[in-house]
């Protein structure tokens, strides 16, 4: 009988402690909410364009084919119509070089670079 009395006192203490000053015990049973998705508005998809992150910035790049490395070479821009504008790619001239390192450089509107 004494063991049963101690059990009741312990259960009463746990119950009162759970109902006491903190709701943390009961919060354990509350339904979990998913974090809000910025691409949805009230369960309806909306246009979502994440910020650009250049994950390759500063990483070493190796390309098997780059224009103008061994000698000047001609390349043409692709367009909807035939005969897009053509240019010369030349590693020896800074304005005409397009090294693979341009793939991972910073986006700078004052220094537009392109790998070819």
TrEMBL record:
GO biological process terms on file: animal organ morphogenesis; dendrite development; motor neuron axon guidance; tissue development
Organism: Clastoptera arizonana
Position of the signal peptide: 1-17
Domain Laminin N-terminal: from-to ranges: 44-116
GO cellular component: basement membrane
Segments forming a coiled coil: none
Alphabetical keyword list: Disulfide bond, Laminin EGF-like domain, Signal
Keyword Disulfide bond: yes
Entry-linked InterPro entries: Laminin/Netrin_ECM (IPR050440), Laminin_N (IPR008211)
Protein name: Laminin N-terminal domain-containing protein
